[in-house]
Amino acid sequence: MKKTVSMTINGAPQSHEVEPRLLLVHYIREQAGLTGTHVGCDTSQCGACTVHVNGVAVKSCTLLAVQCDGAQVLTIEGLAKDGKLHPIQDAFWEKHGLQCGFCTPGMIMSAHQMLQRNPRPTEAQIRHDLEGNLCRCTGYHNIVKAIQYAAEKMAGK
Amino acid sequence: MATARLLGASIKRREDPRFITGKGNYTDDLKLPGLTHAVFVRSPHANAKIRRIDTSKAAKSPGVVAIFTGKDMTGVNSLPCGWLLPELKIPPHMPLATDAAHYVGDPVAIVIAESQSAASDAAELVAVDWDVQPSVTSTERAAAKGSVQIHEVAPDNVAFRWQIGDGAATDAAFKSAAVTVKKRIVNQRLVANPMEPRACVARYDDSTGEWTLWVTSQNPHVHRLLMTAFVLGIPEHKVRVIAPDVGGGFGSKIFLYNEETVCTWATKQIKRPIRWTSSRSEAFQTDAHGRDHVTDAEVALSKDGKFLGLRVKTTANLGAYLSTFAPAVPTYLYATLLNGVYEWPAIHAEVTGVFTNTTPVDAYRGAGRPEACYLLERMVDAAAAALKMDPADIRKKNFIPKFDNGYQTKVALQYDSGNYGAAFDKLLGMLDYKKFRADQAAARAKGRLMGIGFSTYIEACSIAPSKVVGSLGAQAGLWESGKVQVHPTGKVSVFTGSHSHGQGHETTMAQIVADSLGIPMDDIEIVHGDTGRVPFGMGTYGSRSASVGGTAIVMSLDKIKEKGKKIAAHLLEANPKDMEYVGGNFVVKGSPQKAIPFGQVALTAYVPHNYPEGVEPGLEETSFYDPANFCFPFGAHACVVEVDPDTGHVKILRYLAVDDVGNVINPMIVDGMVHGGIAQGVAQALWEEAVYDRDSGQLVSGSMMDYTLPKADMLPFYETDRTETPTPVNPLGVKGAGETGTIASTPAVVNAVVDALSGLGVDHFDAMPLTPERVWKTAQAAKSKK
Q: Does the bond joining B464 to the residue before it have cis omega, within 30 degrees of 0?
């Protein structure tokens, strides 16, 4: 029995008939056609699917699409505004915080939330707050550097 | 105009804007009209005969398009093994197992449906009548008497017995040695775990009789060749293989796998495109695993610490079948590196490859070289301990002295250039080694367990001289292609047979081209990963893209410039021999005012109204570069740890690396690869292990919940530096940087933990990873012996 689910993704209204078992991440990728949000595991470890739902960073593999009826969803595609990169995106580019790019959307969405909660995190806080996101390429060195750099830029320094 | 050299500059990556905005184009992102979705039915047993597969109930499940088993795939051959050793036993490895399955995850049927969920539902309804057999997963027990016999063609489960070096000379060295040290070295099984799971989309076009396969591949031409010519028997030129953005590989995406082969076959049967994307659980079970050696190693030494001989006996677990390059990894990529950076009078190594009821084992980042490096660097420390020598001193005593052009090892390889002592001295300087030893003694007096471990490593990359590897069993040439296409407007398209899945080729290769032609990087595009656009190429593995792929591009650039000189000379009414190419202009030597810019020559080549006799129109060159030798990066790493005596927890206090990868094209990118490599090697030392249940043969570390991939808070910032010893092998002087970190770091960490516990009497760990439990138990056992 399909259900109708409606939500706003990156400011654009979406409405689809979906199976109740459909995960939010698959809704975003398959129904809304936004493939920047990735699936890297099946046990909610990797964080590649991290998006913001009503302003809170969540792993979109842990929610059903029908649970998000009426929600405001922000994905990696919605972060740059008017063709201008968000400072965190720019920091990942500037500090070489990515290699294969697959974990990157989730990393950036997590970092975005991290800096909202704590605009000037220490190195240890950054590393701790990245516990939900796995990267296999960078050894995290330049991801941490990128988040430090973004924090400085966003603080206006 | 003086321009800064682009070679050697940390230029921001040109590929990044699409990745940071979510516009990457990975295989699973592809949408095609009429797309169907595939799920594979897999063996839940480690070893089982198949009595019958009943698909009738599944076929009636809603949304099912088709179900195929191995019996449907008539006329299809075994997946091939691309590296042959003498008397190698090659069991058939069918894309879908028909009579028996030999590891948990072995695929037996494909279910294709209108949606992913419909395919999953139907796959649950495929009933396989299994006749479960006993299994063997252990490397050590595979060839033991009374073990389960897995394949008829391989008695005692032995795939090969192989040796290298001089056995008699080594025996003599041991007889005359003052001191010998023997250790058991276990290099545990790992899972590569690139963040993007494997995936494919296969489409057959009935109107043209052509296939397109999008696949997570490090080498799309190799995928196409193996699949068409060896397995499916379809014309190679009718299949286009595209490896779009690929989210990491680390070796695991080199090989031809069952799934893309079955999907390519099946799309023609159903005349609709098929997508298959691995779940992470499937990835753990079916991506080729890495390492898995058990070794007895012995070093013979003089009283004053000179190495006299090395004897190695290794059993290498190959898994249930021979993956594409499996036999090469524990032989020619392993034992040929046992010379390390040291002078050895004699070395002998024997390797036995065994089959087990486990996932096939093949190349994982480093592939053989990490196993050799771990063995050697652990043994060097054990030798130092036996002689009560400082581990830095024993290394310095045995380093091969600096050389610029060739050093013959005792295990076949001839090194290109090296200055091992210089890299180590630089590392000791960064470390302030004397101060560390003083700090360590002070900490120990207070009951704190600090330790330092070194790893002075070498690796062989820039794979590989075709003639050499051909004589050793490779069934392929390992050259690379590079095509440079200059457009009439002076813009340049470069087609490389190398493939980037994180390495940043769109940036580094554009740096090579821009530096050579003196034109802006924005005028250059790098095309890779598409057999429909790129000349046949061998792909990316063995840290070969810059050294082999980059050199092929350099050769084409040289040809472009030679042709350009003829065109420019004609326009300037000069002799082509008097022309030179400077900063984007063809110039008459000694007359800088007589110059024609690159763009004008390009246009003239396509509008050849005023054109030299005997010169063809157009400006496009293709080169195939076959290296004369491997390249041999080297370096020195150190890890400083503190071990909690109560819990066995290991904390990394510092990690330092001095790498020599030859000339560096983009330091930022090289550093990034070194960081990631270190993380993977540290993870082998401390956390990662693929574990099979002894009795059931189940992969118990089969998810990211059970297999410990490192997280950000488990690792430090890495302190990196480098020395630059250009290789004489290629014109760029580059060696290779993709694997050094992984190769070097594992022994540095283990040596550091042993050093930290040395005061308690610990001198070795039989096995990795050094989990708190293993560290604590080893420390307790040592203490109780004291």
A: yes
Provide the edge-to-edge strand list for the sheet that holds B591-597: B579-582, B585-588, B591-597
Helical H segments across chain A, by residue range: 24-26, 87-94, 104-117, 123-129, 141-154
Q: What is the mean pLDDT of residues B506-511?
A: 98
Least CB-CB distance to B280: which of A40, A102, A126?
Answer: A40
CA atoms within 13 A on the CB side of A25: 23
Count CB pairs under 8 A between chains A and B. Answer: 184
pLDDT cut 90: percent of chain B above it: 98
Chain A residues touching B277 at Cβ < 8 A: 39
**Alpha carbons A14 and B714: distance in angstroms, whole number:** 40
B503 at A interface, C-beta within 8 A: yes
Which tokens hold the place of B229? Answer: 């010519």
B290 touches chain A (CB under 8 A): no
pLDDT at A157: 57
* pTM strictly above 0.90: yes
Chain A CB within 8 Å of residue B24 CB = yes
pLDDT-above-90 percentage for chain A: 98
Bond prior to B220 in cis (omega within 30° of 0): no
Q: Is the CB of B248 less than 8 angstroms away from the CB of A123?
A: no
Confidence band, pLDDT 50/70/90 cuts, at residue B4: low
Q: Give the model confidence (pLDDT) of B690-705 as tens digits.
A: 999 999 999 999 999 9
Residues of chain B in contact with residue A141, where contact means CB-CB under 8 angstroms, are: 672, 675, 715, 717-718
What's phi and psi for B68, nearest 5 deg? -130, 145
What is the ipTM for the molecules in this complex? 0.98
- CB contacts, 8 Å: B194 with chain A: 100, 102, 136
Phi/psi class of residue B21: alpha, beta or left (left: φ > 0; alpha: ψ in -120 to 50)? alpha
